[in-house]
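queue> pop job 88
queue> type: inverse folding (structure -> sequence)
queue> payload:
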């Protein structure tokens, strides 16, 4: 894989790198130093149009359109093999771009090819039905077919992993794709496009347009040539994209923000629950959509729980994401750091108290990067700003509750509905919570364990549509009815 440091990365259209017609480039920053480390093309509307046209041409090209399902599955399998070979290089690129821990990115990207294998196996499993009708000499069939060009817009927090749940099934189904990665983390997606060509996919099946959301992203989501849009990112951007897509009657899948409740009952093993809450909110410096950032604790153990949470949080090692012993790295963007500081400040102004954290660490190298201490806010209320909005940083608010009725009211008092977690030994109570909470995924005595075999997605303002499992194969194919009178 070619070195990215100091390079100028072009777009990927029609199977090759091209310079942007816009002539514009933007810098991508290393969050540990706040210095730029490469430049990426800032595509304009003409570039986006070229990418969509390339995907449209590939969609009807017999090299792709007439490829058998078995051969498509084999291609996706070959891609999985190559992704495993390149996993460590891709992990290093993502860590450099978004500051997430290298050991986590290595684990994530070494596991990612398994998801491609899973969907490769589905390429020849998508089938229609024969449906009886009120006439004997009539054959009434359904066919499942690819939808066309799918536009995919991704965020910066896990660029390749978040693409997998829709890209792998789209390739297995026979769709073609235009990807617009985040302007902050484009390099790994461009590298992926090259690996896709190396695997032997026809040119134009996967195209990448990089650039700002307001320009490249807007142009893609307003383009009439798309059959479907997949968006992973913030709720505010999701609403805008859904409106653009609606103007063209293009359906969307939306994976948006979260403000997930993480619940602890008095009957738990305290250390296990504290570790679960810590990992649930501080992983990736809090920059995960499923972060359990509202922690509700049964009143009887509230003080003990908070003491233990504060003690555990104080011992979290902040450091360079490439060091083996680092537990929390920097935030990916300077704007993100300011946002976190703003919410902690407003929480304190509203009456919450910082039990631990609440500063930018200044010692040594840390002072240069976009680091923020993991922070626990107590004396919090569910109606405070930092408990209502997604912060996307290492901040958790802790609130006591008296009983299940109060708990479910608090847990559901949010406009989001992505995930929820509960720690208790009482299985009846856990299942009652799972049934009553508004969340697309519920974890009982665990948190953050997601699998590509499961249907993942949100309720309420966390989005709609599901990725993972066989469901996604249906979402990205279309159903046609064929009637034969014989
Ligand atoms: P963002 O919404 O700012 O940007 C996401 C993507 O949208 C980027 O590629 C950006 O360039 C593009 N974009 C921005 N404005 C656009 C516009 N007007 N038109 C088209 N595209 C536009 O989000 P972010 O800051 O990159 O990522 C963090 C957010 O992503 C958080 O809210 C997080 O919860 C969410 N997220 C959700 C999931 C999930 O699966 N539900 C997963 C990861 C992240």
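queue> result:
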């Amino acid at each position: 894989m070619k070195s990215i440091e100091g390079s100028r990365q072009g777009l990927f259209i029609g199977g090759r790198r091209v310079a942007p017609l816009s002539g514009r480039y933007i810098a991508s920053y290393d969050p540990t130093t706040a210095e730029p480390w490469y430049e990426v093309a800032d595509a304009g509307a003409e570039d986006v149009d070229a990418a969509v046209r390339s995907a449209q041409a590939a969609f009807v090209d017999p090299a792709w359109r007439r490829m058998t399902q078995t051969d498509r599955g084999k291609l996706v399998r070959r891609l999985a093999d190559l992704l495993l070979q390149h996993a460590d290089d891709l992990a290093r690129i993502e860590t450099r771009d978004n500051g997430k821990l290298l050991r986590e990115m290595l684990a994530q990207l070494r596991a990612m090819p398994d998801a491609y294998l899973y969907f490769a196996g589905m390429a020849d499993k998508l089938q229609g039905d024969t449906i009886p009708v009120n006439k004997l000499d009539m054959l009434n069939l359904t066919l499942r077919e690819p939808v066309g060009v799918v536009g995919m817009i991704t965020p910066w927090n896990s660029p390749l992993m978040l693409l997998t749940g829709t890209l792998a099934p789209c390739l297995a189904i026979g769709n073609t794709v235009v990807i617009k990665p985040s302007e902050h983390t484009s390099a790994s997606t461009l590298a992926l496009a090259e690996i896709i060509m190396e695997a032997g996919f026809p040119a134009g099946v996967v195209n990448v347009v990089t650039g700002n959301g307001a320009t490249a992203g807007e142009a893609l989501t307003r383009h009439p040539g798309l059959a479907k849009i997949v968006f992973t990112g913030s709720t505010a951007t999701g609403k805008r994209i859904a409106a653009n897509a609606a103007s063209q009657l293009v359906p969307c899948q939306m994976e948006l923000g979260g403000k997930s409740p993480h619940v602890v009952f008095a009957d738990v093993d305290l250390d296990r629950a504290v570790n679960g809450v810590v990992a649930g909110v501080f992983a990736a410096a809090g920059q995960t959509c499923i972060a359990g950032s509202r922690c509700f604790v049964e009143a009887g153990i509230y003080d003990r729980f908070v003491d233990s949470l504060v003690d555990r949080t104080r011992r979290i090692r902040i450091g360079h994401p490439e060091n083996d012993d680092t537990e929390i790295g920097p935030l990916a963007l300077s704007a993100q750091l300011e946002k976190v500081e703003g919410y902690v400040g407003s929480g304190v102004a509203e009456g919450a108290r910082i039990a631990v954290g609440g500063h930018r660490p200044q010692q040594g190298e840390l002072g240069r990067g976009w680091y923020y201490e993991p922070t626990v806010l107590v004396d919090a209320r569910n109606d405070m700003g930092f408990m209502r909005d997604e912060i996307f940083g290492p901040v958790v608010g802790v609130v006591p509750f008296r009983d299940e009725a109060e708990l479910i009211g608090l847990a559901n008092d949010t406009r989001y509905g992505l995930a929820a977690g509960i720690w208790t030994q009482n299985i009846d109570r856990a299942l009652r919570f799972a049934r009553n909470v508004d969340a697309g995924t519920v974890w009982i005595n665990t948190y953050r364990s997601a699998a590509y075999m499961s249907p993942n997605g949100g309720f309420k303002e966390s989005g709609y549509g599901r990725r993972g499992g066989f469901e996604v194969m249906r979402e990205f194919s279309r159903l046609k009815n064929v009637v034969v009178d014989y």
